[in-house]
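Obj.: predict assembly geometry.
Materials: sequence records (below).
Method: joint structure prediction, all chains together.
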Amino acid sequence: MSKIIASAAIRGAHKIVERAEKKYEEALKKWGPNQEVGFPNTAYYLPIIYAILGVPIQKLGDVKPVLERTRSLLPPLVKERVNLPYLGPALDAGMAAFFAEEIIEAIRYLEHPNFYTKQEDPLPDNIWLGAADDVIFRKRGVEFVDGTAPGFAAIVGAAPSPEIAKKIATELQEKNLYVFMCAENEGKRFSEQLVEAGVQIGWPTRLVSFGPDVSAAVFAIGFACRVAMAFGGVKPGDFRKNLIYNKDRTFAFVMPLGFVSDEWYANAAGAINWGFPTIADTPIPEILPTGVCTYEHVVSNIPHDQIVQRAVEVRGLKVAVAEVPIPVSYGPAFEGERVRGEDIAMECGGGRTHAVEWVTSRPMDEVEDGKVALIGPDLDQTESPGRFPIAIVAEVAGRQMQEDFEPILERQIHHLINYAQGVMHIGQRDIAWIRISKGAVEKGFRFSHLGKILHAKFHQDFGAIFDKVQVKIYTDKEKVDQILAQAREVYQKRDIRIEGMTDETIDTFYSCTLCQSFAPSHVCVISPERTGLCGAYNWMDCKASFEINSTGPNQPVPKGEVIDPRLGQWKGVNEFVYKASRQKVDHYNFYSLMYDPMTTCGCCECIAAVLPMCNGVMTVNRDFPGMTPCGMKFTTLAGSVGGGQVTPGFVGHSKYNITQRKWLVGDGGIKRLVWMPKMLKDEIRERLIRRSQEIGIPDLIDMIADETIGTTEEEILPFLTEKNHPALSMDPILE
Amino acid sequence: MSDIEKKSIDPATIEMIEKAHIDGCETIFDRADVMKPCPIGAEGSCCKHCYMGPCRVPAPKKKEGALEKIRRIGLCGATAETISARNFARMVAAGTAAHCDHARGVAKVFLATAKGEVPEFQIKDEQKLYQVAMDFGIEIGDRPIREIAIDIGERALAEFGRQEGELIFLKRAPLKRQEIWRNLGVAPRGIDREVVELLHRTCMGVDQDYQDLLISAARCALADGWGGSMISTELQDILFGNPVPILGQVNLGVLKKDEVNVVVHGHEPLLPEIMVGVLNDPDIQQAVQSVGAKGINLAGMCCSANEILMRHGIPVAGNFLQQELAIVTGVVDAMVVDIQCEMQSLAQVAKCYHTKLITTSPKAKIEGAIHIEFEEREAQKVAKKILMEAIENFSNRKTNVEIPSHVADMVVGFSHETINYLLGGFFRASYRPLNDNIINGRIRGIAGVVGCNNARTTHDDPNLTLIKELIKNDVIVLTTGCAAITSGKAGLLTPEAAKLYAGDGLASVCEAVGLPPVLHMGACVDNSRILMAATAVVKDGGLGDDISDLPAAGAALEWMHEKAIAIGHYFVASGVFTVFGTVWPTTGSEPVSRFLFEELENSLKGKWGFEPDPRKAAKLMIEHIDKKRKALGIDRARERVLFDMAKRRELDAA
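Observations (raw C-alpha cells):
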C-alpha cells in the first residue's frame, strides 16, 4: 500500500461508512427494525457480510451490530509525518467499505424496489441489473467452476470514449472473462458507453451492468464470496478460507478507468483482501511488492490498448485464446449474444427451413484436412434477411477415431458456432437453428467460416482423437434434403446403441474432477446410466476426454468388485474416490439418496430430496427459483449439499438422469418421484412418458405434483392420494 | 575529531558530557579514559574459580609453539581452553539467571493477578492469554479467564523448577529445530536446573572439556531464550497488552524544564506500568501544581523505557550510556531504578545535582540511594509515594540546568503478532508478504541488531553504522534493547527513514506497508519476539524449514552485559549467525573461538562471529544472508507463473 493510496482508501472508507450509518438510521425510522431487508432471491443474504462475518442479515435490525463492527474496523486517518503502518489498517478499511456498501445497496432495494432490473438482461429503460439472484449466480457460477470463465474484471468508471470502452470489453470477452461494471467517471459510465457503441450487454454476453454507483462493486465481490461458499464448501464466517480461496481460484481484478476518488481507493483496497489487484489507466501510485495478492497490488498508468493484457498478467492468469481464422471476435463470452429483428442477415432452420448438423468418419484418403466447401449460395448472394436451408457436415478421419466419438464432436458444433460474435446457434442435429447478423456479414463473415471454426476448434480441443477434418456446407435445398435423410438414419442407430448400454455391461466408469479447481474434495464418477450431475458429461464424453488427454480430469475407474448392486457401490470406485477426494470421502452409492449418496460440487442441474410424509422424493432444477416441498429452494439445497460432502437424504443429478433406468433405483427409482417443477416436467416430458411406459405406469407423469398443486408436503399429499401415486404404497422410504 | 567527539555520535550525549565536565561531575566516559580493561580478563584467560589461583594463562603475542601450549595451564591443569570456555559459560549462566529471575518475578505477579491477590494488576490481553493457554496445552473451553490464567501462571512458574522433560515453549520452534536440539541433547529440562548445572560444571574440577562446556552453555542459553525470556515477554503482554504500533519520542530532549521529571530506569515493567496509571491521579496533579511545576513528565531509560514506550508511548530519555547524563541535565527530580544495568555511579552523579536516586527492587540496592521497595500488593501506593518524592524534589533544583534540544520521533511496538496483522489486516493477517518479498529479493534478508552500549567504543556508532549499512543493502532490521534506542535517536524508526536510508527494494516494501526499515520489537528480554518472528517466517513457508535456513543474521556490536552473551548464545543455538563487536571474551583460546565461530555450525547450524568494524560486520552478515539465499535457490529472479484451470485443480483444498 503506498501512503497516498492507504490515506485515500481510509478516508474513503470513513465516508462510505458514514453514509451507510446515515442510510440505516433513515431506514430504521421509516420501516422499523423488523422490516425485511436483503438482495432478491438469494440464500446468501448480503453475501460479503455473510461470507466474512457469518452474519445473515434478514431484518433491518440485524444491520446494527454489523455497522458497529464495521465502524470498529475503521482505522484512524493516516498521519502526514511519522505515520503508523497502514497496509493492514487500509485493508480493514476496504473491508469496512464493502460491508457499508452492501448495507447501502440493500437499503436501496427497500427504497426503490425497481431500481435494478433483477434479471439477466437490461430493460429498454433501465440497464442496471443489480445483484445476481441465485438462479443467475448458479448458472454463471458453473462457468467459473468448469473453467469457461476464469474470473472477472471489475470495471469502475468509464473509458475516454465508447469506442475504447467497446475495445476493452471485447478484449476481455475474448479472454473469456466476465466484465462487472459500476461507478461513473465525469458523468460517464462504462455500461452506458457499451450501449452507446451498440454492444449487447447483460449476463448472456458477460458484460454485466451491475449499477451506476461505485457501491455496486459489492455485487461483484459478493459474487466471488458466493462462489467460494457454493462451490468451494467454504462456510459462512470462515473469512480467511473464503479470501484465500478467491485469491487462488477466482482470477478477478479491479480496473478503475478515470479519476480514482477516495471511495474508489477504498473499494480497491477492499478487493485486495480477496487477492484481486488493481490495474488503472491513470497515473496513481503503484504498489509493486507482492504478498496479499499473488503479484503486484496496484499497477497504474497503463495505456488502454495494453490494459487487458497487463491486467491478466498482474493477476497471474493464463488464458488460452482461441485462434480461429474468422473476421469476427470469438469466445464463450459471445455465446449468449442474440441476433434478432432488424439485425438478422441470414436465418437457417428454426422451423422455417431445414437445418442439419452431422459429424461422420471417413477413410483417411478421402479427407483433406482444413478443406471447407460450400455447396450452394453464400451469405452475400441474397437480400437481407435471407432464409436458406443448411447442412453442415464435418468429415473426420484418423487412426484414433471411433464411431462413438462422432456424436461427441457433433454436440460441440452448437457452442463452437455460437462463440462467434454475431452468430447465434440453437439446437442440434436436425433441429439446429442459425442466425447470422448483418454486422458479421459486413465484417466479411461467410458460410465457409462456420467450417473454419469447426476445423480450428476440433483440432484444438479434440486433436488427439482424429487427424484430419474437412467441412462441407450445403445451402442447396436438394442437397440439404439428401443429407438430412442420411443423417436421420445415423441418429437413430446411435440412439439405439446408447439405450442399450448399461452399468452392468461396462467394466470401467470414468471420473470427472473438472470442478476440483473450485470444489477440491468433490469427485464425480460417471457410468453409462448415471451421467454427470452437471448435465454436461456422459460416460461417452468422459471416455473421449480420456483419449484426448490421458492425464486430464476424466480418468478410467475400474468398477472392481461389486459391494452393493442395489445401491450401486463398487470397491474400485470407492478406492478411486478416496484417493481423488484427498481422503475426504471413502465411499458412496450411485443409485441412492438415502444411503451415502454421491457428492456434488454444487453445480448439479437438479437436486433430489426425500419427502418423508409422501414416502417419496422430489427433485428441483437449478432454474426454478421457487419454494419446494422439502422446505428449501434450490439454492438453499445446493448450499447444504454442495462442496463435495456426502449428505444422506439429498443428491445432485442431471436432468437427463431422471429418465435413466438407474435413477435412485436403490430407493425405489422413478416410482418415488412425487414432485418436480412444472418447467422441468415439460422439458423432459417426452422421455418421462417413455420411461413411465417402460415401468408399466404410463400416466405417472400426471401423478407427479408440481408447484401448481403445492409447495409443501401437506399441500401435495391429497393430490398424490387422489391420483393413487405408486410411492404411497411402496415400502417406507425411511427405515 | 576531538576526544569528546570520539565518545559518542549522539549530539545530546556529547553536550551532556561537556556539561558534566563543566559541572565537575565524573561520568563513565571519564573513567573509561582512566582505567583500561584488564588484558588477561578481557581475553578470558584468567581463572579464579578456585583460590589456588587466580591463574593467568594469557595467549602469547606471537603464534604459540608446543611448549607454550603446555605452559598455558592453571595449577590444577585446566587448559587455556577449559578456562576460556568456563568463563564464557559462566557469563551465559549469569545472563540467563538475570533474564529468568526477572521472568520469575513477572510470573509470580501474573499468578497473583490471576488469583485476584493484587487488584491493581489486571489481565489486559485476552487474545494473547488464549494463545499462551493453547501453547501450554491448557484447556480453554468455556472456562472463565481467571481459571485459565491461574493455570498459565502455575504452569509458567513450574517451568523454573522443572526437573525433567523439556520446557513447554520449545514446541513453538520449527520442528526441524526441535529435532536438532533433541539430537544434541540441548533441549533444556528446566530453567533453574540449567543455570545451576552450568554453574556446577564450571566449578573447579568438574567439566574440563571445552566443547562439552560450550554445548552445555547452549542448553542453558536456550532456557533463557525459549524459557525465561519468552515467559516474561508473554506474561507481560497478557498483563499489560501486546504491543501494537505507537508513536514515541526519544533522547534527552524529552526531559522538560518546567515539569517534574521522573526517569524510570532498569528492566521490569511492573512498577513503571503502575506509575503510568497514577500520573493523572488528583493527589499527584495537585501536588505538582503546589510546587509550581507545569506537569509531571515520566520518561524511560534503557529497557524499562522500552517496555512502557511500546505499550504507552512514554518518551525515552536515552540508552545505557546516557543514564548518568540524564541526571547531568539537572532537571531529573527522581531516577527510579529496579534491576540490571543501573550503574552504581548514579548515586555519585545524583549528588552533583539535586536528583533523588530511588531503588525499588529488594534484589538491587545501591549505597547512597533512597530505597522504596516495590510491593505488588500496594503497587499504587508505592508508585504514588515515589512520584511524591520527585515532586517534592522539584523545588530543590540547582541553577545548572541544561536540556539538550535533541528529540526524535519514532514508531515502535512491533510484536511478532502485530507484524502478522500489519502485513495483511485483520482478515488476511500473515507473514506471506514478508516471505514473498524476501523470496523475490526486494528484501535481501532479516537481521536482528540488539544489545547494549559499551564505553569501550564510540557510543551508538557501531550499531548505527551497522544498521544503516544493512538497510542500505535491503536487509530489514529487527531491534531491541539499547540498540533500538540508538536507532530511534538517529531517526531510523520512522517510515520516512526508508526512503532516506534503505535500498530501493526494502524501501518499496516499507512504503507498501508503511513501515520503518528498522522495527523496534521491545526490551532486551523481548528478543524472544525475534525468535518467534523468525519462526513465523519459517512456518509461512518458502524459506526452508528451520531458522538456520533463513537468509538472516544477528548482531550486538556494542555488547557489554553477560545477558548479551546469553542472548547471543541462544540465537546461535537457534540457528542464527550472530556477530558481536567491540571485544570478544574468548580471544585467549584459539580452539574455543574456532569452535564458536566455525564448528558449532556443524551441529547447531548457527555460529558466532566477532568483528569490531561495523562495516565489515555488515559485510559478514550480508555474505551469510546471500549464502542462505543461494542455498534456498532464491538468489536468481523467478519467472512469473501464470495459472490456467488445470493448475488450479492441482491446488490443495483451500
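Conclusions so far: Chain B touches chain A through 47 residues (CB under 8 Å).
To do: check interface contacts against the pulldown list.
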